[in-house]
Design goal:
Elements lengths: L1 H8 L3 H9 L6 H7 L4 H13 E9 L6 H4 L3 E3 L6 H11 L9 E8 L12 H5 L8 E5 L15 H13 L5 E5 L6 H4 L7 E4 L22 E4 L7 H12 L10 E4 L5 H9 L8 E5 L5 E4 L3 E5 L7 E6 L8 E5 L7
Parallel strand pairs: 1-3, 3-4, 4-5, 5-6, 6-7, 7-8, 8-9, 9-13
Antiparallel strand pairs: 1-2, 10-11, 11-12
Protein backbone atom coordinates (compact mmCIF):
# COMPACT_ATOMS: atom_id res chain seq x y z
CA UNK A 1 0.00 0.00 0.00
CA UNK A 2 2.86 2.29 0.80
CA UNK A 3 4.37 1.61 -2.62
CA UNK A 4 1.06 2.32 -4.31
CA UNK A 5 0.76 5.58 -2.47
CA UNK A 6 4.31 6.50 -3.42
CA UNK A 7 3.53 5.82 -7.07
CA UNK A 8 0.44 8.00 -6.90
CA UNK A 9 2.55 10.85 -5.59
CA UNK A 10 5.01 10.37 -8.43
CA UNK A 11 2.32 10.83 -11.07
CA UNK A 12 3.73 13.58 -13.32
CA UNK A 13 2.11 16.99 -13.19
CA UNK A 14 2.15 17.11 -16.99
CA UNK A 15 0.05 13.94 -17.23
CA UNK A 16 -2.64 15.22 -14.87
CA UNK A 17 -2.62 18.61 -16.58
CA UNK A 18 -3.01 16.93 -19.98
CA UNK A 19 -6.02 14.98 -18.72
CA UNK A 20 -7.62 18.08 -17.25
CA UNK A 21 -6.98 20.00 -20.48
CA UNK A 22 -9.37 17.62 -22.26
CA UNK A 23 -12.26 18.67 -20.05
CA UNK A 24 -14.56 20.90 -22.16
CA UNK A 25 -14.77 24.52 -21.07
CA UNK A 26 -18.55 24.29 -20.72
CA UNK A 27 -18.44 21.14 -18.56
CA UNK A 28 -18.66 23.10 -15.33
CA UNK A 29 -19.50 20.17 -13.00
CA UNK A 30 -16.38 18.25 -14.10
CA UNK A 31 -14.17 21.33 -13.83
CA UNK A 32 -15.57 21.98 -10.38
CA UNK A 33 -14.84 18.38 -9.37
CA UNK A 34 -11.30 18.62 -10.76
CA UNK A 35 -10.69 21.69 -8.61
CA UNK A 36 -11.15 19.49 -5.53
CA UNK A 37 -8.49 16.93 -6.51
CA UNK A 38 -5.64 18.78 -4.84
CA UNK A 39 -4.57 22.18 -3.65
CA UNK A 40 -1.99 22.18 -6.42
CA UNK A 41 -4.59 22.05 -9.22
CA UNK A 42 -7.31 24.00 -7.48
CA UNK A 43 -6.13 27.39 -8.69
CA UNK A 44 -5.87 26.31 -12.33
CA UNK A 45 -9.30 24.69 -12.28
CA UNK A 46 -10.90 27.67 -10.57
CA UNK A 47 -9.43 29.97 -13.22
CA UNK A 48 -11.09 27.85 -15.88
CA UNK A 49 -14.33 27.72 -13.93
CA UNK A 50 -14.55 31.49 -13.47
CA UNK A 51 -12.68 32.63 -16.59
CA UNK A 52 -15.70 33.13 -18.86
CA UNK A 53 -19.01 34.01 -17.22
CA UNK A 54 -22.43 34.56 -18.80
CA UNK A 55 -25.20 35.95 -16.61
CA UNK A 56 -28.86 36.08 -17.64
CA UNK A 57 -31.20 38.78 -16.41
CA UNK A 58 -34.74 39.89 -17.15
CA UNK A 59 -35.01 43.04 -19.25
CA UNK A 60 -38.05 44.85 -17.94
CA UNK A 61 -39.79 47.97 -19.13
CA UNK A 62 -42.12 49.15 -16.33
CA UNK A 63 -45.73 50.12 -16.94
CA UNK A 64 -45.54 53.85 -17.73
CA UNK A 65 -46.71 56.10 -14.93
CA UNK A 66 -45.11 59.20 -16.35
CA UNK A 67 -42.72 60.12 -19.11
CA UNK A 68 -39.65 59.44 -16.98
CA UNK A 69 -40.66 55.93 -15.96
CA UNK A 70 -41.59 55.00 -19.52
CA UNK A 71 -38.02 55.66 -20.61
CA UNK A 72 -36.31 53.36 -18.13
CA UNK A 73 -35.39 49.76 -18.80
CA UNK A 74 -34.52 47.61 -15.80
CA UNK A 75 -32.33 44.53 -15.64
CA UNK A 76 -33.61 42.40 -12.81
CA UNK A 77 -32.88 39.02 -11.30
CA UNK A 78 -35.05 36.16 -12.46
CA UNK A 79 -36.73 33.63 -10.21
CA UNK A 80 -35.78 30.85 -12.61
CA UNK A 81 -32.11 31.81 -13.00
CA UNK A 82 -30.11 31.87 -9.77
CA UNK A 83 -26.59 31.89 -11.19
CA UNK A 84 -26.06 35.64 -10.61
CA UNK A 85 -26.95 35.22 -6.94
CA UNK A 86 -24.68 32.20 -6.56
CA UNK A 87 -21.81 34.03 -8.25
CA UNK A 88 -22.29 37.07 -6.02
CA UNK A 89 -22.21 34.81 -2.97
CA UNK A 90 -18.99 33.11 -4.14
CA UNK A 91 -17.17 36.36 -4.96
CA UNK A 92 -18.25 37.92 -1.69
CA UNK A 93 -17.07 34.94 0.36
CA UNK A 94 -13.83 34.48 -1.62
CA UNK A 95 -12.80 37.85 -3.13
CA UNK A 96 -9.72 36.37 -4.86
CA UNK A 97 -12.06 34.51 -7.25
CA UNK A 98 -13.07 37.85 -8.81
CA UNK A 99 -9.57 38.20 -10.27
CA UNK A 100 -10.10 34.97 -12.24
CA UNK A 101 -13.04 36.41 -14.20
CA UNK A 102 -11.59 37.51 -17.54
CA UNK A 103 -14.69 37.64 -19.73
CA UNK A 104 -18.18 38.64 -18.64
CA UNK A 105 -21.32 38.62 -20.77
CA UNK A 106 -24.49 40.13 -19.34
CA UNK A 107 -27.40 38.75 -21.38
CA UNK A 108 -31.10 39.49 -21.10
CA UNK A 109 -34.51 38.19 -22.01
CA UNK A 110 -37.72 40.18 -22.11
CA UNK A 111 -40.03 40.01 -19.10
CA UNK A 112 -43.31 41.50 -17.99
CA UNK A 113 -43.82 44.01 -15.23
CA UNK A 114 -44.57 42.74 -11.76
CA UNK A 115 -44.48 45.04 -8.75
CA UNK A 116 -42.71 42.30 -6.78
CA UNK A 117 -39.67 42.57 -9.05
CA UNK A 118 -38.80 46.05 -7.84
CA UNK A 119 -38.31 44.72 -4.32
CA UNK A 120 -35.56 42.37 -5.46
CA UNK A 121 -31.92 43.30 -5.08
CA UNK A 122 -30.02 44.13 -8.25
CA UNK A 123 -27.23 41.60 -8.20
CA UNK A 124 -25.77 43.09 -11.38
CA UNK A 125 -25.08 46.39 -9.61
CA UNK A 126 -23.37 44.48 -6.80
CA UNK A 127 -21.43 42.11 -9.05
CA UNK A 128 -19.90 44.50 -11.56
CA UNK A 129 -17.97 46.62 -9.00
CA UNK A 130 -16.29 43.44 -7.70
CA UNK A 131 -14.57 42.74 -11.02
CA UNK A 132 -11.25 44.41 -11.78
CA UNK A 133 -9.38 41.98 -14.03
CA UNK A 134 -11.67 41.74 -17.07
CA UNK A 135 -10.30 41.70 -20.60
CA UNK A 136 -13.71 41.41 -22.32
CA UNK A 137 -17.13 42.78 -21.38
CA UNK A 138 -20.39 42.28 -23.27
CA UNK A 139 -23.67 43.96 -22.38
CA UNK A 140 -26.44 42.33 -24.41
CA UNK A 141 -29.78 44.11 -24.14
CA UNK A 142 -31.06 42.63 -27.40
CA UNK A 143 -34.10 40.61 -26.41
CA UNK A 144 -36.67 39.24 -28.86
CA UNK A 145 -35.67 41.80 -31.51
CA UNK A 146 -36.11 44.63 -29.01
CA UNK A 147 -33.70 47.49 -29.62
CA UNK A 148 -33.49 50.22 -26.97
CA UNK A 149 -33.43 53.49 -28.90
CA UNK A 150 -31.15 55.21 -26.42
CA UNK A 151 -28.56 53.72 -24.13
CA UNK A 152 -29.47 56.37 -21.55
CA UNK A 153 -32.95 54.82 -21.23
CA UNK A 154 -31.36 52.00 -19.24
CA UNK A 155 -31.83 52.66 -15.53
CA UNK A 156 -29.07 54.90 -14.09
CA UNK A 157 -27.85 52.38 -11.49
CA UNK A 158 -26.96 49.90 -14.23
CA UNK A 159 -25.32 52.63 -16.31
CA UNK A 160 -23.16 53.53 -13.30
CA UNK A 161 -22.24 49.88 -12.78
CA UNK A 162 -21.11 49.59 -16.42
CA UNK A 163 -19.06 52.77 -16.07
CA UNK A 164 -17.46 51.19 -13.01
CA UNK A 165 -16.43 48.21 -15.16
CA UNK A 166 -14.77 50.50 -17.71
CA UNK A 167 -12.97 52.51 -15.05
CA UNK A 168 -11.74 49.66 -12.85
CA UNK A 169 -10.57 47.15 -15.46
CA UNK A 170 -7.29 48.47 -16.80
CA UNK A 171 -6.71 45.42 -19.00
CA UNK A 172 -10.11 45.63 -20.70
CA UNK A 173 -9.58 45.49 -24.45
CA UNK A 174 -12.96 44.33 -25.80
CA UNK A 175 -16.34 46.00 -25.21
CA UNK A 176 -19.54 44.93 -26.94
CA UNK A 177 -22.93 46.56 -26.42
CA UNK A 178 -25.87 44.90 -28.16
CA UNK A 179 -29.48 46.05 -28.36
CA UNK A 180 -28.93 49.67 -27.27
CA UNK A 181 -28.38 52.50 -29.72
CA UNK A 182 -26.86 55.93 -29.16
CA UNK A 183 -24.11 55.04 -26.71
CA UNK A 184 -22.76 58.31 -25.22
CA UNK A 185 -19.20 59.13 -26.35
CA UNK A 186 -18.22 59.93 -22.75
CA UNK A 187 -18.82 56.26 -21.87
CA UNK A 188 -16.50 55.07 -24.64
CA UNK A 189 -13.87 57.64 -23.65
CA UNK A 190 -13.51 55.89 -20.28
CA UNK A 191 -11.61 53.12 -22.08
CA UNK A 192 -10.42 54.76 -25.32
CA UNK A 193 -7.73 52.31 -26.45
CA UNK A 194 -9.86 49.21 -26.95
CA UNK A 195 -8.76 46.47 -29.28
CA UNK A 196 -12.41 45.77 -30.12
CA UNK A 197 -15.41 48.10 -29.92
CA UNK A 198 -18.74 46.60 -31.02
CA UNK A 199 -21.81 48.88 -30.90
CA UNK A 200 -24.78 50.01 -33.01
CA UNK A 201 -24.21 53.76 -32.89
CA UNK A 202 -23.06 56.67 -30.75
CA UNK A 203 -25.15 59.57 -29.55
CA UNK A 204 -24.67 63.22 -30.38
CA UNK A 205 -22.14 65.08 -28.27
CA UNK A 206 -24.55 67.27 -26.31
CA UNK A 207 -22.13 69.25 -24.15
CA UNK A 208 -19.44 71.69 -25.21
CA UNK A 209 -15.86 70.55 -24.92
CA UNK A 210 -13.99 71.20 -21.71
CA UNK A 211 -10.81 72.85 -22.94
CA UNK A 212 -9.13 72.49 -19.54
CA UNK A 213 -9.85 68.77 -19.17
CA UNK A 214 -10.76 67.54 -22.66
CA UNK A 215 -12.06 63.97 -22.99
CA UNK A 216 -9.65 61.26 -24.04
CA UNK A 217 -9.56 60.50 -27.75
CA UNK A 218 -11.33 57.25 -28.64
CA UNK A 219 -8.93 55.17 -30.76
CA UNK A 220 -10.20 51.61 -31.28
CA UNK A 221 -8.19 48.99 -33.09
CA UNK A 222 -11.26 47.14 -34.37
CA UNK A 223 -14.70 48.72 -34.82
CA UNK A 224 -17.95 46.97 -35.68
CA UNK A 225 -21.12 48.98 -36.14
CA UNK A 226 -23.91 46.44 -35.82
CA UNK A 227 -26.79 46.07 -38.22
CA UNK A 228 -29.97 47.90 -37.33
CA UNK A 229 -32.92 47.99 -39.70
CA UNK A 230 -33.92 51.63 -39.43
CA UNK A 231 -32.85 55.07 -38.32
CA UNK A 232 -29.11 54.51 -38.02
CA UNK A 233 -27.96 56.74 -40.89
CA UNK A 234 -28.25 59.97 -38.95
CA UNK A 235 -26.70 58.32 -35.91
CA UNK A 236 -23.66 57.49 -38.03
CA UNK A 237 -23.40 61.22 -38.64
CA UNK A 238 -22.64 61.50 -34.91
CA UNK A 239 -19.66 59.20 -35.48
CA UNK A 240 -18.44 61.35 -38.37
CA UNK A 241 -18.78 64.47 -36.20
CA UNK A 242 -16.67 62.84 -33.49
CA UNK A 243 -13.98 62.27 -36.12
CA UNK A 244 -14.19 65.92 -37.18
CA UNK A 245 -13.99 67.10 -33.56
CA UNK A 246 -10.93 64.86 -33.06
CA UNK A 247 -12.62 62.99 -30.24
CA UNK A 248 -12.38 59.82 -32.32
CA UNK A 249 -9.58 58.66 -34.58
CA UNK A 250 -9.18 55.71 -36.93
CA UNK A 251 -5.39 56.05 -36.96
CA UNK A 252 -4.85 52.56 -35.50
CA UNK A 253 -7.98 50.94 -36.95
CA UNK A 254 -7.33 47.49 -38.41
CA UNK A 255 -10.94 46.40 -38.86
CA UNK A 256 -14.03 48.38 -39.88
CA UNK A 257 -17.34 46.55 -40.21
CA UNK A 258 -20.22 48.85 -41.18
CA UNK A 259 -23.23 46.55 -41.18
CA UNK A 260 -26.09 49.08 -41.25
CA UNK A 261 -27.10 50.95 -44.37
CA UNK A 262 -25.97 54.52 -44.61
CA UNK A 263 -25.79 57.27 -47.20
CA UNK A 264 -23.11 57.46 -49.86
CA UNK A 265 -21.57 60.49 -48.17
CA UNK A 266 -21.39 59.02 -44.66
CA UNK A 267 -20.06 55.70 -45.92
CA UNK A 268 -17.34 57.51 -47.86
CA UNK A 269 -16.36 59.72 -44.92
CA UNK A 270 -16.04 56.79 -42.55
CA UNK A 271 -13.89 54.84 -45.00
CA UNK A 272 -11.76 57.86 -45.90
CA UNK A 273 -11.01 58.40 -42.20
CA UNK A 274 -9.20 55.05 -42.01
CA UNK A 275 -5.46 54.71 -42.48
CA UNK A 276 -4.30 52.62 -45.47
CA UNK A 277 -1.19 51.64 -43.53
CA UNK A 278 -3.18 49.90 -40.79
CA UNK A 279 -6.57 48.84 -42.24
CA UNK A 280 -6.69 45.07 -42.81
CA UNK A 281 -10.41 44.24 -42.88
CA UNK A 282 -13.22 46.27 -44.45
CA UNK A 283 -16.83 45.09 -44.59
CA UNK A 284 -19.51 47.63 -45.45
CA UNK A 285 -23.16 47.57 -46.47
CA UNK A 286 -24.27 49.07 -49.77
CA UNK A 287 -25.59 52.59 -49.14
CA UNK A 288 -29.31 53.28 -49.03
CA UNK A 289 -31.29 53.28 -52.30
CA UNK A 290 -28.30 52.51 -54.49
CA UNK A 291 -26.86 49.46 -56.12
CA UNK A 292 -23.12 48.85 -56.20
CA UNK A 293 -20.80 47.37 -58.72
CA UNK A 294 -17.15 46.44 -58.49
CA UNK A 295 -14.69 47.88 -60.92
CA UNK A 296 -11.08 46.86 -60.91
CA UNK A 297 -9.82 49.63 -58.63
CA UNK A 298 -12.95 51.50 -57.65
CA UNK A 299 -16.19 50.71 -55.90
CA UNK A 300 -18.72 52.79 -57.84
CA UNK A 301 -22.30 53.65 -56.97
CA UNK A 302 -25.18 53.49 -59.43
CA UNK A 303 -27.61 56.17 -58.29
CA UNK A 304 -30.07 56.06 -61.19
CA UNK A 305 -31.49 53.80 -63.89
CA UNK A 306 -28.64 54.54 -66.32
CA UNK A 307 -25.60 52.35 -65.95
CA UNK A 308 -23.21 55.25 -66.57
CA UNK A 309 -24.34 57.39 -63.62
CA UNK A 310 -21.46 56.53 -61.33
CA UNK A 311 -20.47 58.49 -58.27
CA UNK A 312 -16.94 57.37 -57.34
CA UNK A 313 -16.49 56.62 -53.67
CA UNK A 314 -13.11 55.32 -52.62
CA UNK A 315 -10.22 53.75 -54.45
CA UNK A 316 -9.42 50.23 -53.37
CA UNK A 317 -5.85 50.43 -54.62
CA UNK A 318 -4.81 52.71 -51.75
CA UNK A 319 -5.65 49.99 -49.22
CA UNK A 320 -2.59 47.96 -50.09
CA UNK A 321 -2.59 46.05 -46.79
CA UNK A 322 -6.22 44.99 -47.01
CA UNK A 323 -6.64 41.24 -46.44
CA UNK A 324 -10.44 41.09 -46.19
CA UNK A 325 -13.07 42.97 -48.20
CA UNK A 326 -16.81 42.46 -48.01
CA UNK A 327 -19.63 44.49 -49.50
CA UNK A 328 -23.12 43.50 -48.38
CA UNK A 329 -25.80 43.95 -51.04
CA UNK A 330 -23.60 44.39 -54.13
CA UNK A 331 -23.71 43.13 -57.67
CA UNK A 332 -21.21 40.34 -58.45
CA UNK A 333 -17.80 41.68 -59.45
CA UNK A 334 -16.87 41.64 -63.12
CA UNK A 335 -13.13 41.66 -63.69
Amino acid sequence: MSLAMDKSFDCPYELIAAIFDHVPQDDLPTISACSQTSTFFRKDMQKRLFGHITLHYMLLKPIPVGLQSSLRYWLLDSVEVDRPRRLLSALTAYPYLASYVKSLRVASYYGFFDSAYKARPYTITQLLPLLSNLTAFTFDAASESLIISRYTWICPCIQRAIECVLLRNEHLDCVKIYGARNVPPKILALRPDLKMLDIISVSELRTSLDLVNPPRVIRPQRLRLQRCDSGVSMELLNLVNLLKDRLLTFSRLELLHLESQSTVSLTSQLIDATCPETLLSLIVTAPEKVGTRYKRNTWAYISGPRSDTHVPSFTLSKFHKLTELGIIGHYPPKF
